[in-house]
Amino acid sequence: MSYFLPLTSGCSNNTCTFCGFYGARLRMRDADEARREIDALDLYMRHRITVPDVDDVVYAIAQHWDGRRVFLQDGDAIVYPFPKMVEVLRHLNEKLPNLERIGSYATPQDILRRTVDELRTLKQLKLTIFYTGIESGDDEVLRRVGKGVDHNQLVEAGRKAKEAGITLSLTVILGLGGVEGSRQHVLETARVLTEIDPEYAGALTLTLVPGTPLYQDAMEGRFSPISPFQSLEELKGIIENASFTDCFFSSMHASNYLSVRGRLPQDKRRMLAELERVLAKRDPALLRPEFLRGL
Ligand code: SF4
C-alpha cells in the first residue's frame, strides 16, 4: 500500500559479499526531480490530472494508492544528504497532508552518520520506520561478509534510532555463518537483537546469488551452506536465546523454508513448538519447496 519514491539507487555500502548490490554504484536523485514527482502525484491524487513529462509508472502506482504511506527507495535512502532529505520530506508533507507514515531502508552506517537530533527531525516529518538489515550479531560473520560494521556499532545504530523515536524493523540472515559458524552466529544474533530490542524483527534464509563473492566461495568450497533443517534450528536458537520487550518476530519472508510468526515474548512457547514439530519429523514435504523460495 506504499507509494515508492526513489531518492537513490544502489547502496552506499556495496561490499556485502552475499548481496545483489555488491559492487553497485550509488546514485543520488536530483531533489528538484523528486519534488516534481511529488507535485505530479499531488495533482493526480486531488484532480486525476496527469502531466505529460512524468513517467507513466507514477500514475500506474498512484491509481491504486490511498495516499497514506510512502516508501523511500533504494537500498539505503537515508544516505541522501540530510538538508535535501528534509527538503523532500517537507514537500511531501505539504503536498500530501494525509500522509501517515514514511518508511525507508536504512543501513546501520546511515543511522550512525546522523545525529539523534537529525533523526528526530526526520521523524517529525513522518519518517517513522527504518528497515535495517543487520544480518548477524557475530563479529566474525559481519567481518567475513563485508557488512562494514561490528556488533557494537549495530547496537549503537539501533539504540540511536530508538532514542529518536523511530520504529525499527530488523532483518537477520539464517545460514550466514555457514556450517562452521552456525552456533556462534545464532548466539550473537540473539544477543544483538536482545540489546537493540526492536519493535519488529524478521529472519531471512541465505540464498546464494550467482555473481556474488559468497556464491563463488560456496562453489569453490570455501563456504559450506547449512541445510534447510539447519536453518530451522538456527531460527529456533535465535527465538530461544533472544529476549524482547515486545517484538513482532517472523520468518514469513519467501526465502525461508518455514513461516512462523508471533509476538515475543508472549508467543515464544507456541513458535518454538511449531519449529520443534517440524524438526522432529524432518519431512522435506513440510518445508517450502526450493522452487517457491524467493530472495
Ligand atoms: S548494506 Fe544491504 S543493500 Fe547494501 S550491499 Fe549490504 S546487504 Fe546489500
The CA-CA distance between the termini, in Å, is 20 Å
- Which kinds of small molecule does this entry bind, naming each only once? iron/sulfur cluster
Helix/strand order:
EEEHHEHEHHEHHEHEHHEEH
What order do the strands of the largest sheet run in, or round the barrel if closed? 1-4-5-6-7-8-9-10
Strand percent estimate: 15-25%
Task: Describe the main β-sheet briefly.
Answer: 8 strands, mixed
| Alpha plus pi helix count | 11
Gross morphology is globular
Q: Low-confidence parts lasting 5 or more residues at pLDDT below 50?
A: none
Q: How many β-strands, per DSSP?
A: 10
What is the mean predicted local confidence, pLDDT? 96
Computed over alpha carbons, the radius of gyration is 20 Å
Q: Assign the structural class, choosing from mainly alpha, mainly beta, alpha/beta, alpha+beta, or little secondary structure.
A: alpha/beta
- Helix content bin: 40-55%
